[in-house]
Structures are given as structure tokens and as C-alpha cells.
Amino acid sequence: MKLPNKVTIKEVGPRDGLQNESQQVGTDNKTAWINRLSESGLSYIEVTSFVHPKWIPQLADAKEVLSSIKRKPGVTYAALVPNRRGLERALEGNVDEVSVFMSASETHNKKNINKTIADTLPVLKEVVQDAKAAGKSVRGYLSTVIACPHEGLIEPERVKAIAGELREMGIEELSLGETIGVAVPSQVERLLETLLPDFSEKFLAMHFHDTRGTALANVWKSLEMGITTFDSALGGLGGCPYAKGAAGNVATEDLLYMLGAAGIETGVSMDKLIEAGSYMESVLGKPMNSRQMEVYRKVEVE
Amino acid sequence: MKLPNKVTIKEVGPRDGLQNESQQVGTDNKTAWINRLSESGLSYIEVTSFVHPKWIPQLADAKEVLSSIKRKPGVTYAALVPNRRGLERALEGNVDEVSVFMSASETHNKKNINKTIADTLPVLKEVVQDAKAAGKSVRGYLSTVIACPHEGLIEPERVKAIAGELREMGIEELSLGETIGVAVPSQVERLLETLLPDFSEKFLAMHFHDTRGTALANVWKSLEMGITTFDSALGGLGGCPYAKGAAGNVATEDLLYMLGAAGIETGVSMDKLIEAGSYMESVLGKPMNSRQMEVYRKVEVE
């Protein structure tokens, strides 16, 4: 089976991870953490979200974080934006790239964004246009691409249709979110078999949560199908506030371990990631949820 | 990709799981736990080990456990035996099937069994002959088939040579143990590509530990290559006393989740497994290490 030689890991911990942490993390701690992530060799970090603070109080300091981090050359610092107002604030913070987001499930979209899918598309279109006019690249997130906590399994054809609309708007990359972490590789295979005839492998990224422990198996299947970009969160942070019981993102260090052992290059240093993870453990005052951090803690004790 | 319709899960928690638990579990608790496992639909349970109690004090009550469990028709109750003396005791306990074991790594074999590989083979041959003379079927375990904590990566050809010796002795099935839980699917693929031209898929079982989080990905790759028997331990119990830092077996309930979601039959009930897992959590006084148990505990709280 042919695997890619090189993979890009997109770190979403500071956004997708922290937004689901009930414990408020200070701006200084976030900044110090992101600066450590920048030193690990990651080329892409989603640092925050410009969703209204009413919805995600944890990230109310979005602009401040974006302004206070140390920008390392070669690293893209991205932020999630829900609409024009969010985009304005992100641009004021001099974001490198913005992400727009919606769901493949009508119910999940309604609960998450408070709009129908049909009403969401024009809002995103405006954001994409404005962002591009401001010289920024735009990434799209499409969530619940395999299953929705309310609607159950999602038809790949529905994902394909919305993916087409998002591409039409001019996004540079589409991240397919397995938001609730229930997928198995045969479902990922079916989704990608539906999409790949119409979308380039380079246009698609996979975003797996790990509620059921299947995320790395799903990553492997995606690799075999030619996908070379994966989202993950250091320490497996994360979840979804609108998807009950959903656990965190696949842990960046677990993803890195598997890729490294398979001989796939990422440019990311495990030692530096573990260092950044240990820092966040000390901030949160609890162990992070990844196998590599577990191994590291055990070896430290022994 | 063609997957099998049906898979056999062999539960090794009472042996491979418990042998690495530092906290002594009472015979009554073991028996009650195994009886719960019997009710889950599992068709095979490795209930204990007849290794000398000096080495594994946790399983010193091997014969007692074997004698006190309630035997459910259709379930095979197996035990590990290291030598003739162990076999005698297992037969006194009326075991259904015995397992013999050795390592593909010379160093690991030496540390685990205190013999060279060459000196181990005749000992196992005696056990296999005697067991078969007593009308019992015999399973073989070959450990460190991908990597050894002392020697590093193990060549598939070495595994193949020893597997051939074990088959020659007359074992009915060979369980290939990824003892330290570091493998990734490309390594599993290479191992199976080496073995499958000479060994039937039905003769081989895969036994994954999950130290690095890759066990389910490795199971998936094995499924794709035609393997239909997998070892696992409820709650991800286990490890290896002679392999530093090695974590538990892949959790039975996580394996079951993945197989179920992929439409593969096992005959095992998730509810009953979770019930058995909850029971063991109460005995051990700590949470068990599986995603399904985590989800279950979360939902209970919510």
C-alpha cells in the first residue's frame, strides 16, 4: 500500500481544544503555550476563534492572543471566524489565514450556528470574499461528515454537495470533521471514495475526534487514500459543546508517533511537543489525554 | 476493501490483564468477573496462567479459579502453561485448551522464560504432545513479533521461522503478540505479507497491545489482510512485566465497537461487556482504560 512521504499536521489545540475546556486559561498561558507549539516544527497553528465570546467565553481574548504570540517565520497562524464581524476582528489581530465553518448535518448546523445550511452558505461566502480581498487565505471546516449526534449517519453525497459549494466560494482547503469521534475506517473509505473523484487529495484535510478510539485507524485509512493533511490537538484536548459525549481531537503527539514510525515526514519534534504538553498539563493541573504523554509520564516516574 | 463478516474475539483479560495488576484480586472476584464475561457472548476466555506463582503471584490461584468458574456451554476456557508441571496442574483443573508461549526475540525470551529460543522449543514440544494426548487443543503465543524492548525491530523472517516450528509441533492456532504496543499498520502489513503465503489466515490470530494508541489501526490492517481472530482484554488491562513501559492489551470493548460499527459480527454484547468492566472497576477501585468505558462513565454522569 502506497503511503505519502510527507504529511502536514495542523494543530488546532489552542482553538478546538481549549474552546471545550471548562477551566478558564489565562491569555499569558495561552500565548506561552502557542509559542512552545511554534518551536516544535509545526507549520500551522489555529490559535483562536472569533466566535462571539457569549458562545465561547474561553476564547474571549482572541485578538489579544493573536497579537501577543511570537510569530515564527514559516508558521501560519490561523483563526476561526463565523461572520464578517469576526473577520474584522481577526484582521485587526493580523491573522495569517481564517477558517469558516459549517456542518453537513442540518440539525447540528442549526444548533451550532443557529441557521439552516441554506442560510449559512451566503454568510460564509461574504466572509471568504472579504478575507480574500484582504489578502488572506481561507480554510473551510465541514463538521459531522460521517455522523451527527442528532441525525445519525450522514450520506457522503450530502457532504460532497456542500463541499462543492464551499470550493465554489474560493476556499483553499476543506477540513472534513468527524466531529463526534464515532467513525471507523470503512466509513472514512466510503466518504473519500465519494469525494476523491471530484476533489483533489491536496484540497482535503481530515479532522478526527477520538471518542471511540478509532481516530488513528481512520487517519491510516485516509493516508492510504492519499490524504496528506490532518488536524489534531496537543494532548487530545477538545470535544464539541454541541455534541454530547464527544471526546477530544486525536492527539497531535499520537498522530506524530504513528506517522514517524511509518517513516512519514512531518518536520515536527516529538520532544518539543511533549514539552508543550507538559506545560499545558501544569497550566490545567491535570494529565493530558494521549498515549505519548502517558508513556512520557511513566518513563519520568521510573 | 474486503473485510471478514465474522470475527472471533479471544478475551485474555483474566490472564494477560490481571498478571500485570499490582493489586491482588481475590479468587472470588476473579470468578465473578469471568462468569460475567461468560455471559457477554464471548466464545473464548483465557482465565489464568499456570506459570509458577513465584513469577506471577497474582495468578497463584490458577487451579482454584479454573475449578470455581461457572462453565457456559460453547465457551472455551483456556489457560497458559509454561511446561509439563504447569500442564499437569491445568489438566487437574480441567482446562479446555492450553496455550504455550515463547518470544521471537532471543533477549525477551531469555528474560521472560529464562531459556534460549533453541532450548525453549523442545520444552513446548513436550507440552503440546502431552496436552494433545490428554485430548486438549493447544494454542501458541509468539511475542515481540514486531519489536522487542531490548533488540528493537524483529525481522518478519525470524517470526516466520519460529511460527513454522510451532506449527510443526501441532498447535491449532498461533497468536502473534505485538507485546510492547509500538507497531504501526505498515509493520503489521509487512509481517503478514511474509507469513500469509505459508500460513492460513485461520491459523493466525493477532494480539495487540496499545501503548502508542495504534492497536485498533493495526487490527484494521489485519482485518483487511484476512485475519479473523483477535486477542483483547476487557478494560485494556495488562502490560508486560518484562517489557518496561508497555501498556495494556487493546480493550475488548474498543475492539468490539470498531468491529460492530464496521458491520462485522462477533456475537458479543457491548452492554454485558460494560457491565463486566464496571464490576472490575469496582473491584480494582479505579477506572479502566478504554474509550467505551470512558463514554459509558460520561453518559452515566450526564
TrEMBL record, chains A, B:
Region (Disordered): 1-24
Residues covered by the Pyruvate carboxyltransferase domain: 7-274
Keywords of the record: Lyase, Metal-binding
MF term (GO), any: metal ion binding
Pfam families: HMGL-like (PF00682)
InterPro entries tied to this protein: Aldolase_TIM, HMGL, PYR_CT
Biological processes, Gene Ontology terms: ketone body biosynthetic process; L-leucine catabolic process
Domain of life: Bacteria
Statement: the UniProt record of this protein carries the keyword Hydrolase: no
Family affiliation: Belongs to the HMG-CoA lyase family.
Protein name stated in the entry: Hydroxymethylglutaryl-CoA lyase
Species the sequence originates in: Bacillus thermotolerans (Quasibacillus thermotolerans)
